[in-house]
Amino acid sequence: QVQLVESGGGLVQTGGSLRLSCAASGRSFSPYAMAWFRQAPGKEREFVAAISWSGGTSQYADSVRGRCSMSRDNAKNTVNLQMNSLKPEDTAVYFCAAGVRPSVIATSYDYWGQGTQVTVSS
User: Fold this and answer.
1) Rounded CA gap, 22 and 16, in Å?
2) Any idea what DSSP says for residue 65?
3) pLDDT in tens, 80-93
């Protein structure tokens, strides 16, 4: 089993920045691809970003490309999501996930954190 805990969410104004972190414990962190998803009230869970096991390949949703950057530090069992130029439509609960390979499909991931709230005020 892998346990994931997100942190770094909060309230920011439009144009502000946040850095989300996801700490992993349990089985070895390194073999897993990692991803961030978000879910706003009344909406389905939405893909945000993913990174490969090696960290050499990353992908982003069109809605965040150019504003967000995902990274991982396997020595610390941590992945991060740097979010810049935030918009009100970025408001959601952000979840990290771990799986065998990167994917934009939520059901492809085996482990999920509990989420951290990001709120962007206008």
Assistant:
1) 20
2) B
3) 999 999 999 999 99
Mean pLDDT value of segment 79-108: 96
* Nearest Cα to Cα of residue 121 among 11, 1, 44: 11
Hey, which residues does 112 pair with through a beta bridge? 97
Other Cβ atoms closer than 10 A to 6: 22
Measured over the CA atoms of residue 114, residue 119, residue 120 and residue 122, the dihedral's sign is positive
Q: What is the pLDDT of residues 25-63, one digit of tens each?
A: 886 655 789 999 999 999 999 999 999 988 888 999 999
Cα distance between residue 71 and residue 55, in whole Å: 7
* C-alpha to C-alpha distance for 37 and 27, rounded to whole angstroms: 21
Q: Nearest Cα to 94, choosing from 75, 76, 120, 72?
A: 120
pLDDT of residue 56: 82
Angstrom distance (rounded) from CA 44 to CA 70 = 22
